[in-house]
Predict the structure.
Amino acid sequence: MNVNGLMRILAAIPFVGILIGVYFVNRVTPYLFGMPFLLSYCVIWVVLTSVIMTVIYFIDPKNKEGAAE
């Protein structure tokens, strides 16, 4: 697998986690961090999306071209 394929897979993970995963965790009763489970699940995915996009930024070869200047 090349870098572009890896970046596409990493970029698809938050999409799948937020849009498809919500149907599986649609509950209110367990509370995490003082929030209903569904709300805390969405907040966790927002944080994970930022982490994943940072990883994509660092492995993208286009961002390394200007570093030598």
User: Anything to note?
Assistant: The chain is about 60% helix and 5% strand.
